[in-house]
Input
Amino acid sequence: MKKIIVLLSVLGIGLLAFAQINVVPITNTVLQIKKNATVYYLPQTLIHVKVDVKTSKFIPGPFYNFAEKYLSINDAPKKSYTYSDITAVEFVQVSVIDPLAGFIVLDNKGSLCFDNRGVITAYNENVDNQTVLNELKYQNLPEYFDLDSPFYTDYGVKRNFIGITDTTYKVIQLDSIFQKIPVYNTVITSKDFEQKAEEAANYIIKMRKRRFKLQTVQFDGEKPPKDIKFLIKQLDKLEAQYLELFIGKEISVNNSFYYTFKPLTDHKSGKIEMFQLSEERGICQTAAEDTEPVYLKYQNCAWTAELDSFYSRQTKLKEKEKTKGLFYRIPGHGGLSVEFDGNTYAKQTFVIPQYGTLTNLPSKMFKNKHLKIIFDVENGSIKRICNE
Output
């Protein structure tokens, strides 16, 4: 009899040591905790969107009227204009805790591991304490056109003045004979616009001749220059600068818009207006007559919809468990795209935990003292379950 009592006592102590776990969501409003308990969270995904916008302004060259006459360039642009366009889109996934997916662990005899956010990483397994860095520093410092600075400052390589000789006549008397003689007067004056244009065009032609001689190995001396390619490149650069006086040039500023999108569990599909885009002003916060909206379109792929239905049917078919094991997620997927004026500038599909299925392990399986579980800290899913 004494042996039976001792055996039952040992068995009771063993069952107590490996009692099943009980996990309760923190959203449970009727739970009363009478002793200390462990709290853990599952992660969710935020997506940072960066949209780069380039605003360009075209300024006609001051000599556009003489482009055809001196350089045979037809239809040189005569009017200035400004336009804006999206040049790049970047999506960055960030994993943060889901405040609605927090859980209280009761009656736990195993060990739990967490990362620096409080997200569960393992059960009864020694893993390195993971540090998840989610801070993204964005600086939105808009750049504007400097309309006060001159766009063209180099009109030629020669002096800006020219001497104009004016001839007049005076009559003098020599030995009773009157004679008219010329008198020359030189006046220094500024060159007119066409004279400057002609000099600039002649300088372009001289550069083309020098480049041609370098390319065809025609040198003044016996030895060729040491770096012919560099000289040709510099001549190309200088010629392009002088051509701008006739065909105009474009100046640009680049700005970025930053937006953080939080996918919600009940999201299906929709679009969000991030900002307005103006041809003249680039990124704008408010709508106006000259702006068009830039949208962020989202879609829940609903790839775990059948799994949700399955778990829902199981709940109805059987009585709810009084206790539950550790909760985890089977992640879902979602798509994002950036659209403007009917055009799609970026489109990408992401793993989004909160779009998936939230479920729990059976409480009874935690009676196994050898049970080990490793979780994915980015998605809240189970990476490995073993009995070792």
